[in-house]
Amino acid sequence: MHSLNQPSTSDYHDAPPAKQHRIPTLLTAAVAMLANHGAAHAQSNVQIYGLIDSAVVVESGGPKGRITKLESGVSNGSRLGFKGEEDLGGGTSAFFLLESGMLVDTGGMDQGGLLFGRQGYVGLRQKDIGALYMGRVYVPIYQTLTTIDPMANQYAGAAGQLMSGAKAGARQNNTVMFISEEMQGWTTQLAYGAGEVAGNAAASRQLGGSLTYSRGDFTARIGYNQTNNATATDSAHNTLMIAKYNFGPVIAGLGYAINHGIGSIDSRDSIAALTIPLGKHTLMATYIDKNDRATSHKYRAHQYAGAYSYALSKRTALYASFAYLSNTNFTTTRFGSGNREYDLGMRFSF
Q1: Is the CB of residue 241 less than 8 Å from the CB of residue 268?
Q2: What H or E segment, with its residue span, contains residue 145?
Q3: pTM for the complete prediction?
């Protein structure tokens, strides 16, 4: 990660041919604006950062049979971001973040083509109280999921493929969110996402929250999310409870989710997770069970997944992962159309 006021030699490269330019003009303008800002105000804390991730993906078990392809953001979403913070005095600071998702395999934009689709917010932080965010943010239940999933909802076996909490959406638009400072191990998080429907404040509204307790090697967290439909006549309710402990050679965790609505949806999700850190090597594994209790379905699915990461340096890593689904009534593997997936890739961060 480089400050705009301290560019490294790696920031300078020859421009690619014009036909390869697929980043919107607005993003290019944003880069130039922030760079000029950093040059003009030597004391400003503004940074450019990013991550490039790409992998060869082999999928099978789908309607078209075995497919080999190149994908972006397999172990971590490829991105280009800008963030900054200003000390306002008295323990108060202002901050912002703009983060754009990139598809390095095609040169396009991720998150449906949104310019800053990963995150975009501005806020205030008060020491010993907490921080207030306004914009597009990660929802509390999704952050609960990534706390228990050692693969952070990435790789072939992303937990969110089966677990309904992630289906509520990783990110939330039009949101005001508060995250408290830790007090004796406890942290709270509250989020309100406006539906912005004229004459019906409840329509398409999203509410969320979480409560975390963390002491030493132990962490427990509960996350909740409610999403109303477009007319506020029905809503989805998702609750995820997790606990994990760092035993030293192994980090182990368990999670359980309860999901109701919209409509007749009624399911339970369970996850068991392991992480084995071995210096530059990291091994990760998960088992997920989904139990559909809706009378119209009554499906059940299991997912077995594993990943291996090798750190070549602080910035660069190689990785491999796999996932197997017992059936595809609910979903497929993350980058596939069937029930099996294998990934082999590389990521570089700056």
Answers
A1: no
A2: helix 140-148
A3: 0.84
